[in-house]
Write a structure and sequence with these properties.
mainly alpha, 14 helices, globular
Length: 326
């Protein structure tokens, strides 16, 4: 344990020292330039390491992944669009896409609804009670997704009838005289997938609540008082005044949770490993890469995700720019 702490501390110190050394050298090179060239070139020297890191760790792997999506499973030859056509022509992968679309359709909207509800209700509490309630709701954000999924897997655990139940839900069910239910195996109407979504919603509700609560508190009190003096009810005030003024935050929360859902992997991997019709695109990529060793299929799946996420990111960037210019 001591050696691990020492190794970690040494790595951090070495990284900081290396970064300082790089910027010191770049600064000296800029100062060695004649006249006005120092002022012109120095900013580019300062951003050069960041640009280089983005190129090495983001741009280059993206280009390689796109190229590999047109190669065979072992990367030995080009196969054109065969990986995409074969994946989309497989019933199992189409079902995986349907499961992912279900996550996309339900989780972001539910996260906003729950976060908005908690933000509005806690805003009516006393300051001390509000802090305690928000701390409790936000606490799952401090737990890793793998840890949360492990806990919730025990929540849904089912033992054979007649045996002590380790799962909380089946403990309640059997206490009322019913047989235990294998919750994560109930694929009818995608009910087991929805149980997985509940776990992700539990983890993301705190994030949504914090941002939406801050946005609600930012609504001018004069506007609310004027509406009340005009006889508007609380419901009308909420939908006609508060919601339009926090629209930007609502979009930010929705897009952030949407991107999280599109690449969800760890929750499904830990709780079901994609069994019982719960597979999603992120887990399918993992299985193709590390189980089937099919690099062509894995790269094609990543490219599909990239194509789906890019328009969302463009919209988000435009939304930020519009808010900044307003």
């Amino acid at each position: 344990m001591v050696s691990q702490v020492f190794s970690t501390a040494l790595t951090v110190l070495a990284g900081i020292a290396g970064a300082l050394a790089v910027y010191w050298v770049l600064n000296k090179l800029a100062e060695a330039l004649p006249g006005r060239w120092e002022a012109r070139i120095k900013p580019y020297f300062y951003i050069a390491p960041a640009v280089a890191a983005i190129g090495v760790y983001l741009v280059y792997p993206t280009v390689v992944t796109v190229v590999d999506s047109f190669r065979s499973s072992d990367g030995s030859r080009f196969v054109g669009l065969d990986n995409f056509s074969q994946l989309l022509g497989t019933p199992a992968f189409r079902q995986t896409l349907l499961n992912s679309l279900l996550w996309i359709a339900l989780v972001p909207a539910a996260c906003i609804a729950v976060g908005l509800l908690v933000a509005v209700l806690t805003d009516r509490l006393t300051p001390t009670a509000e802090k305690m309630a928000k701390t409790i709701v936000f606490m799952p954000m401090a737990i890793s997704a793998v840890g949360s999924a492990t806990v919730w897997r025990f929540m849904y655990a089912a033992q054979p009838a007649g045996q002590p139940q380790t799962g909380l839900l089946n403990g309640v069910v059997t206490a009322f005289g019913h047989d235990p239910v294998p919750w994560l195996q109930q694929s009818t109407a995608h009910s087991n997938s929805m149980l997985l979504m509940v776990m992700l919603l539990w983890g993301q509700a705190g994030f949504s609540m914090v941002l939406l609560s801050a946005a609600i508190k930012g609504v001018p009190a004069d506007t609310l008082e004027a509406a009340r003096l005009d006889g508007a009810g609380e419901g009308r005030i909420f939908w006609r005044i508060i919601v339009p003024q926090i629209r930007g935050t609502l979009i930010t929360v929705f897009v952030t949770v949407l991107i999280t859902v599109m690449k969800v992997f760890d929750v499904v991997y830990v709780m079901t490993n994609g069994s019982f019709n719960t597979n999603v695109v992120g887990l399918e990529f993992f299985n193709q890469l590390y189980t089937n060793y099919n690099y062509g299929y894995a790269s094609a799946i990543v490219v599909m995700l990239l194509i789906a996420i890019v328009p969302i990111m463009i919209y988000q960037i435009r939304h930020f720019r519009a808010e900044e210019s307003a």
